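Researcher: Sequence of Flp family type IVb pilin follows. Predict its structure.
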Amino acid sequence: MRTDEEGATAVEYGLMVSLIAVVIIGTVGAIGIALNTKFGLVQTKLGG
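Model: Prediction complete. C-alpha cells:
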C-alpha cells in the first residue's frame, strides 16, 4: 500500500519558509534599530 505524503511535505516546507521569514524580518528589524541608534549618536556628537 502506497501512502501519499506530498501534502504533508508541502506543509512542512511552508512552515520552514515561514519560520525563516520571521527570523529574517526580526534580524533586519533589530539591525535597523541598532543603526538608527548609532546614527543618532553620531548626529548628536556632530551637533546636529
